[in-house]
Structures are given as structure tokens and as C-alpha cells.
Amino acid sequence: MRKFRQKEAYYIEKVGKNFKDIDIDLIIENRVHLNQLIEHIKIVDMSDEEKEKYTQIFINNNVHKKYIKRLSSLSKIRRKEAAVILGYIKTYDVLRELEIALIREKKEDVKFYILWAIVKHKNKNSIPVILRSVKNSTPFYFNKVSSLMVDYGKDLYYYLSYKMDTDEEYLQKLIINFASYFPKESFRFFLIEKATKSSSKEIKELAVNALSENYPEVLDDEFFLKNDDEEIRKKAIEAIAYKNNFSTIIKVSEFLADEKVYQTAISTISSILRSRPGLIEKVVELFKKEKNSEKKKAYARILSLRIEYFMYKLMSRDKEYAKEIIKEIMFSHKTSEIIDFVNKNKIEEIEIEMISVLNSVKSDDYVKRELSYYLNGDLLEKLSLEREEPESLPHFVTNEKGKIKFQWFFLLITFLIPIAIFYFTKYDFIQNNEQTEILKEFVVDFNIYLGFYVISLNLIYLIILVFSYLEKYRQETLWNLKNMEMLTKEGILPSISVIAPAYNEEKNIVESVNSLLSLDYPEYELIVVNDGSKDSTLEKLKSYFYLEKIDYVVNEKLMTRPIRGIYFNKNIPNLIVIDKENGGKADSLNVGINVASKEYICGIDADSILESDSLYKLVSVTIDEPNGISAVGGNIIPVNGSKTDRGFFEEVKIPKNPLALFQTIEYIRAFLAGRLGWSSINSLLIISGAFGLFNREDTIQAGGYMTESERYGKNTLGEDMELVVRVLSGIKERKSKRKISFVYNANAWTEVPEKFWSLFVQRDRWQKGLIDILHFHRRKIFNKNYGTMGLIGLPYHFIFEALGPIFEFSGIVVFLIGLYLGIVSFEIFIFLFIAVVMLGTVVSISSFIIAEDEVNYFSFKETIVLLIFSILENFGYRQFQNFVRLFSYFNSMRSRQSWGKSKRKGFNK
Question: What Gene3D superfamilies would the database entry show (predicted)?
């Protein structure tokens, strides 16, 4: 790869980066491969004349003939590559061959690449061929066609104008999608007809969506507002908000008692109040007059979002009126915003009035309980209330006693297996020798068992490395076929909600958020969730980004701890900051999922920094998976040693701290080699919380991250792995072909512990989480109904990751006993040395070879240092890791789980 880059640099120097004065003779003279020229053309903006010049170069060198043949290759990757290159050779013959290939092709991910090449030719005569290819296609291909066909503009409009009377559903859907981009009067009538008369539920809903975008006034009709279809009702309610008047509020308020659409109604009224705050007094009157208890609660929720308005009225002549409204809101059990405001209030006059209000409402059991949970200590004392801890929900699915029995059982099995093997293989020896001789023989044999165990483990690593290498080659080839023109095209890549939970992250939070806001991606939002931090995390965010608290209606699909407030800056529209009661990382992610509005959610630690193109690389795999991606993980690299400024790298260096260096080796091996291989056999069970992507609907369907608040009534320390296992289980149970994947070159940088105790705390938490997950999903281990996850993935983690440390520690103890007794021979010592040290080193070095593209951030000298440390880690560091995992196994039998945090020193600036 480095050699290729050197050639590339030489070529740019000789020819010029913009290729303004390219000469065919120069290409031939320097023997620069034409494919290399193609790679440059893909990333450089050129005029039509320049493109014509390159087309001539390709034709003169018969490049087109070679790649036309490849359109019929057995390899999907070769067919994709051929399509991409032929997209740059704009002749009639090439276009004709591409059209034939499009109709012939069966694989929809390949069809997309051929479609991309055809659209680049911009020939209107291709429109019928493209539309023909859509028939009987899946949503994957249909959506791609809908996005790309927009490029044909008026030509497509004229063609579709003659197809409006079609009975073909796929054509109707295409016309509806096109109408969203080109609001023409003829399309308006077509949309109304399909929204009112179509027999297809899908067509109706698509037409209503298009009407809401371009003709919202059409939906202000009882046919839509009182439609039997829930989705149509929701769209109609949202659409009529454009009027922004009190009559619309009256109309929408009729739906506040409809449990299927009341969330939409609340959101619509709240959005009207945001733009017309003067209407709040009229909404208060509606609230006071309302007799229906459900509608009254809905009004209370709307008004509670604007509680500051009433709080400041406590200092005016209308304070009695404001106090009554606040009481009503609290009696309606909308308390979180009020409690949060009172806790942060520093105005004595407001405090005095609010103590009076709170004294009058604390008779309500619910309100009293919320006050005792969340009100600050001074105010509790003034109200004569005592602090209580929030109640945990019951553990519906599992319990700690069951897990402890599970652990004791397999602990016993782990100790008994080597004894049983020894007994059955050396039965005659046991019968004919004394106990001392039997013990010596057992010590020798146990060391041999240990050697074979370690050899088996390293052989599994090496097999996974082979799969990693093949998967890396596939991903690298596919990534090189894509260019920014393709990736930035609207509708090609899914939208993303990046969720960053933060707990006591004051040292790194501004750096991280700056980094996340600078991501190069066409459509994403950043949701930072402050999980009740006790430091100045929230204050730093509010101050640096000029955030203001806003009224925001959250659709609570997942149950979570209460939200204190949502903050926003209209000049940074893709940043949302949520302040909530402390509930742990998983609870914070669930809050983010509830607020998220995009197709995928990307969980990332708030103390991590993403490279600018990381999201592109992570999400680009969706183009090559027509069956869909449920989750995909990215690569994690330690940031220790590197210098950053406001979330951007100034200098990339390896860590100076030896402990961080060992972790760098470990991360390279685990991510770039290990997880890549597991994903290739669809058995990847871990997507790091520091950087992972999940389909939002799949995640909600699975129940979100496991917490006490959600359906499972249980917390876990391994929330990332547990969610992956549950999502993958759902895929298998539904017999879906969706995938869990890992992308080797999508990088996130994060700070790793530099002190043994901090590392101990982190790894202790990880191991406890693993044990808890394996117990919770124990029925799936060795269960063929769950495919490779049940037969390979879970058994591997159970045998080698959970029980392995017990066996390895036992082996070390027995080895030391053998040394003490003088019965460990030189041959056994060499055998164990080869099994433990040499094979371990081979695995680490092999990982470096596979990860070569990604470790080239570091200099040659730094790479040598990393290689040396990959050998040294076998003498102490790996034993330390095994000790931590062994300790965690026993400790998890008695300790309570919590979302602990290692101490951070902050990024180097």
C-alpha cells in the first residue's frame, strides 16, 4: 500500500494534481497504470472537456473492452469495479453495454453500481431501461433509483407525465417520490388521487407524505385528519401546523385524547407555541377549562415544557395565577421540568413562592415521591421532606442468585475437566502408583493441557486473522470504488443521529463535541446526553456553544430516567444537548434514541474523537448490503500521546506511557484483526460503545439498551455487547438476512487508562458485563437456531473469554508448583514458551500486517516500538489481564454493578 502511495505521489508530481495538461505519451513513458489514472479522476473535479479527453485516452488504450467483459464476471466486486470505470467512458457502445448489464444483473447491490454508471452518462434514452429494472425490486434498490433519477430532471418529468394513469405500483411510487422534488400542478392532482383513492396502504401513505412536504393545505381536511390509517392522521396533524394560529391549536387539541396520535398532537401544538409564544395564555385557558383527564394531562405536558414562563411570572402581579397553573401542572404529574428549574434557581423571590407551591402539592403521593428523589437538599429540608433513592424496577427476566449458581456450576466444571481427562487417560497409572507420583504426573499433564489450550486459542486467532485479511481486502476494494460524488448524493446513504453519553467529562467534552460537529457527512444530528454529571460538563457545553433551553416533546418509545431539560442553539441546528437524571450509559443512549430523528443511531463515547470521514466509511457498507445492516462497528485507536486542538489532530504519536502502549497493541489486535474476522462469518457480538452504528427501528424493536427502566427490568455493565446479541438474535428469529458488520478503516480515537488501577476498574467492568450477558443469553449458547452466533460466537466467548482465565490461572499455579517440585522438564518449558509467547507474538505481528494501512499514522521508529511491545506484552501484561478477569469472575458473584468511570487526564492540547 505504501508503494502504491509513493507511485501516486510521483504521478501527481509529474502530471499535476488537477490533470490540466495530461499527455498520453507521458502516461506510457512512465508506465503508469491506467487504473491509477482512473483512481485520481474519481476524486478530482473536472470540466466536461477534460472528461472527454480522458474518455479518448481510455478508448485509445482499449480500456472499455476489458471492463465490458468484466460486467459478466462471476465476481461481484469485479462487476462493480467494471461499472464504476465504465461510468467514466462516455460512448454510446459503453452505455448500451451498461443498460444490457443492468437488465441482466440479479444482485441489487451490483445493479446500484451499474445504475450509477448509467446515470453519469446523462442520456435521457436510458430512462425506460432504468425504470424497467425497478420492477419487483426491494426497497434497497428502489430508494437508490428514486434518488438518482432526480438527475434526469425535466426529461424524467416529461416521461412520467405520460405514465400517470399506470396501474404499476412501482411506477406510482416513483412518480410520488419524484413529485417531492418537482412540485408541479399535475403531480398535485396525482398525489391527491392516490392519497384518497388508492387501494394500496403504502401508496396512500407515500402520497400523503409528499403532500405534507409540498401541499400541506390539502391535508387540512377531515378525510385525512380522521382517517382510519394512524400514519395518515399523524401526517395530517403535523402538516396543518403551518397555519400557526389559535384555530389550528383548537383543531389539533381534539386529538389529545387519542392514544395513537396524542404525541403528534402535543408536538404540533408545542411547535406552534414556539413560533407564536403569545398564544400560551389561550392554551392556559384551554387547560383550565378542560374536563377530560387525558387531554388535561396532555395540556399539562405542553405547558410544562414552557415552565420558565410561569416561574418568572411569580415575580409579577400575576403570581397567584402563575402559582395555580404550576400546581395544576404538578398535580398532572408533569414534575421534572419544574423540579429542575427550582434546583437551579438562584432568585430568592421565586424560591419563596415555589416553597409555598410545593408545600401545597406535596400531599399528592406521586409528587411527594418525585420531590424526595430529585429536589436538592436545602429545599427538601425547608419542605420537611427526607431524601429517598429512586426505586429500581423488579428484575422480571433474571436474578443475581441464578447468575451466581450459573457461575459456581461452570467454575466447578472448569476444575473437573482436567481432572476427568487425567483420570480417564491415566487410569492404569493411577491404579498402580502412590499419591505423590500421581500428583507429579498430574502436574506434568496439566501443563501439557495448558499448552494445548493456549495453542487452540492462538490457532482460533490465526484462523480469524485469515478471515480478517480476506474481509479487509473486500472492504478496501469496495471503499476504493466509491467516491464523494456518490456518497454525498442525497438518498444514497442513510441519515444518522450521533448519540454521545457524557458523565463527568468536563476535561474532554468541548474537544469531543467540536470533533463530532466537524464530521464530514451529509445528513446527521449530534445528541449529547449529560447523564446527571456532578462536575461542570453541562455548564461547559452551555457556555461554549451558547445553548438555550427549549421546549421539546420527546416520543418515549423506550422508558428512561426523567429528562431535566433539552438545550439548543439555532445557529448550530444539528446539535442537541439533553440533561437528564443519572441512570447510566445505557439509559443515556435510550434517551438519545427517543430524541433521535434519523434512520441510524451512532453511539459514541463523549470522550472520543472521530476522524472527519469516519462516518462515511462506517455507513458506506450499507451500499453493498442489499439485505440491510442492523449494526456496524468502527475501529478504536488510543489517542494517548497524540496532540489535539478543539477536536482536531495536530500531531499523531504513539503513547509514551507503557501501559497505554500495551493497550494500543491490544486494540489493534482486537479491532483491526479480530472483529473484522468475526464479522465476516456473521458472528460479531461486540460493537464498541465508543463507536457503533445501529438501525434505529431494529434497536427499538429489540427493546433498546438493557436498563431497569426498560422491558427487561435489568441493568448490565456490557450494554454494547448485550444489545448486539439481542439484535442479532432478533435477526435469526425473524429469519432475516440483515447483518452485523465491522469496518476496519472507520476510526475513532479515545483515551485509554494510563494507571493500573484505572485499567483494572475498566477491565473488571468489561468482564462482569460479559459474564452477565452470557448468563442472560445462556439458552442461545450451542443453539443451532441462532446460526453461527449460537454455534461459534457465543461458545467462543463462553469457553475462552469467561472460563478461560480460570483455566489459565490454574495452569500458572500448577506450573509454579511443578517448578518448585523440580518436575517441569526443559521440553515442557519450551513447549509452553512456544504455545504462550511465540504463538502470541505471531498473532500480534500478523495483526500488524493486516492493519498496515491503519497503523501508518505512526513513523517507522514508532512501528518498531509497537512491535517490540507486542512481544513484551506476553511477559506480565497478559498475565495481569488474566488476573483481572479471574478476579472479576469471583467478584461478580457478590458485587453490585454500576457504570463506573476510569479517571481521565484529558487530551493533550
Answer: Leucine-rich Repeat Variant, Spore Coat Polysaccharide Biosynthesis Protein SpsA, Chain A
Cα–Cα distance measured from residue 694 to residue 237, given in angstroms and rounded to the nearest whole number: 29
Residues 6+ apart with CB under 8 A from 59: 89, 91
Assess contact for 18 and 53: CB atoms under 8 A. no
Query: Across-strand partners of 528?
Result: 500, 577
The count of residues in the chain is: 909
Q: How far, in Å, CA of 363 to CA of 4, rounded? A: 75
Which has the closest alpha carbon to 565: 555, 575, 551?
551
Q: Which helix (H) or strand (E) holds 786?
A: none
What pLDDT digit, counting tens, does each position of 767-776 carry? 888 888 888 8
Q: Which amino acid is at 245?
A: N
Angle at 816 between CA 811 and CA 818, to 5 degrees: 90
Q: Which DSSP letter does residue 316 get?
A: S
- pLDDT the model gives residue 497: 94
How high is the pLDDT of residue 395?
39
**Alpha helices for 105-138 (secondary structure H):** 108-121, 127-134
Closest C-alpha among 159, 118, 119, 108 to residue 623 = 108
Task: Tell me, letter by letter, the H, E, C secondary structure of 346-399.
Answer: CCHHHHHHHHHHHHHHCCCHHHHHHHHHHCCHHHHHHCCCCCCCCCCCCCCCCC
Whole-number Å distance between alpha carbons of 400 and 892: 9
Q: Which residues have CB under 8 Å from 159's CB, separation 6+? A: 124, 127, 128
- 32-70: per-residue pLDDT in tens? 445 556 555 555 556 667 667 667 777 767 777 888 999
Helix (H, G, I), strand (E, B) or coil at 273: helix
What is the DSSP track for 22-64?
A: --HHHHHHTT--HHHHHHHHHHS---HHHHHHHHHHHHHTTHH
| 311 close to 345: Cβ distance less than 8 angstroms | yes
Which DSSP symbol is given to 803? S
Contact at 8 Å (CB) between 342 and 353?
Answer: no
CA dihedral 888, 890, 892, 893 (to 10 degrees): 180
Contact 741, 684 (CB under 8 A): yes
Residue type at position 246 = F
Look up residue 415 and give its three cell numbers: 476444575
- Dist CA 856 CA 846 (whole Å): 15
Question: CA-CA distance, 838 to 439, in Å (whole number)?
Answer: 29
Count CB neighbours of 190 within 10 A. Answer: 21
What domains does the chain contain, in order, with CATH numbers?
Answer: 2-162 (1.25.10)
* Whole-angstrom Cα Rg for the chain: 32
Which of 204, 148, 205, 208 shows the shortest CA–CA distance to 178?
A: 148
SS3 818: helix
Whether 623 contacts 720, CB under 8 Å: no
Query: Do 403 and 771 meet the contact criterion of CB atoms below 8 Å apart?
Result: yes
**Bridge pairing between strands 739-750 and 548-550:** unpaired
DSSP state of 908: B
C-alpha closest to that of 307 among 290, 295, 332: 332
Amino acid identity, position 346: K
Side by side, the strands of the sheet bearing 524-531 are: 548-550, 563-568, 575-580, 524-531, 496-502, 600-603, 692-695, 629-638, 739-750, 608-610
In SS3 terms, 761-791 reads as: HHHHHHHHHHHHHHHHCHHHCCCHHHHHHHH
Backbone φ and ψ for 891, nearest 5 degrees, come out as -65, -35
Alpha carbon 701 to chain centroid distance?
A: 15
Contact 264, 237 (CB under 8 A): yes
Q: Distance between CA atoms of 132 and 160, rounded to whole angstroms?
A: 13
Maximum alpha-carbon separation in the chain: 102
| Ranges of the chain with pLDDT below 70 | 1-48, 50-51, 53-54, 60, 389-400, 551, 606-607, 646-648, 710, 851-857, 894-909
CB 590 within 8 A of CB 710: yes
